[in-house]
Amino acid sequence: MAWILIVFLILLGGLIAPFGDLLGTKIGKARFSILKLRPKKTATIVTIITGGFISAISIGLLLLVSEEFRQRLFVDIPFLQKTLDESKKALIPLQEERKMLEDKINTKEKELNKLKSDVKEFRSGNVVIKKGQTLFIAKVNSNRNLKIDLANIYNSADKYVQKIVIPSNKKIKNILLWRPSDISEIESVAQKGGNWIILIKSAANVLKGDNFVFVYPELLANKMIVTKGEVITSETFSDNDLEYKNINLKIRALLTKTRDEIKSKGSIANEITTRGDFVKKIIDALETNQNIKYRLEVISLKDSKTADPIIVDLNITKK
User: Fold this and answer.
1) Which single residue of 206, 217, 218, 265 has CA 20 to 30 Å from 196?
2) Alpha-helix residue ranges (DSSP H) falling in the chain
């Protein structure tokens, strides 16, 4: 059906086109004029009108004989236009979301650039205090003078930090900045009773010469971590394990285990202090007999609480 319609339209156009041309020629020769136009222009207009008439007839025939064409023209095109409008409306939130994502990316890039700058300053030696670094440690006892004691601790911490950040500035001023809610929370907890350790920590990296240092307090219970004579950690070894070249490694491993143990109990001591020459003590205790097992014990030499140093000795015995 479609190819018959196409052939018909071609034939129709071929028949009407010469007619339009002939009509234009006749009008030109007759010197006929429309709207006071020159005959030549009038002939051209008639030819154009004839071409439009051909197109109109073609469209009319398509509408008359082709249901598919009518469907596409009167149903599908409006539907597609409506779908296009709805798609444009749906695109608006996506465009807004894209803008939000671009803003977030720009913010992250700025943060990254700042981080790179901080790293560069740190490498150049300008950072004198790192974020999270403990600046001051003090003991706090719950009593009626608690607020006065805390004020004295804050002042002492302030003077100590001044010497680190602005050592050349002799003018006394407050350099530490706190959140009032942090101080109130410390006072509220400490007033409940007991013995406490207050840690004053830096909230950000601090450069030498900065005028202010943002800090936050952390309150820990001042509890007993180890007692005098307590065996903190121990290991059993054979004399083959304690060959001279391995002794230092064994000792370091045992002290690392000891450090982990006291940390798990709540100690904030950074290092363990040893008494005596551990290596010599082990060598002196070893015998030439084979297949003898030894027990190495790390023993506390004093009572130590949360912030107290840990002092230990090594004890070696046969099993």
Assistant:
1) 206
2) 2-29, 39-65, 67-71, 77-123, 146-165, 180-190, 244-264, 278-285
Cβ neighbours around 208 below 10 Å, total = 15
Q: Which tens digit of pLDDT belongs to each residue from 189-234?
A: 888 777 888 999 999 888 888 888 999 988 888 889 999 999 999 8
What does each C-alpha distance from 117 to 121, 126, 204, 274 come to in angstroms?
Answer: 6, 11, 14, 41
Assess whether pLDDT exceeds 80 at residue 106: yes
pLDDT tens profile 284-293 = 776 655 567 7
Spatial CA neighbour of 161 closest among 122, 131, 200: 200
- Domain spans, the chain: 2-65, 129-222, 225-318
What is the chain's Cα-based Rg? 47
Residue 290 CA to residue 287 CA, distance in Å, equals 8
Taking Cα atoms as reference points, which of 118, 206, 215 lies closest to residue 164?
206
- Model confidence at 93, in pLDDT bands (50, 70, 90)? confident
Contact indicator for 195, 143 with CB cutoff of 8 Å = no
10-61 pLDDT per residue, tens: 666 666 666 656 665 665 565 555 566 666 676 677 667 766 676 676 666 6
Alpha carbon separation from 38 to 31, 152, 167, 227 (Å, rounded):
8, 110, 102, 123
Nearest-angstrom CA–CA distance, 261 and 88: 64
Tell me if 268 sits within 8 A of 197, measured CB to CB.
Answer: yes
CA dihedral 149, 152, 153, 156 (to 10 degrees): -160
- How many CB atoms within 10 Å of residue 261? 16
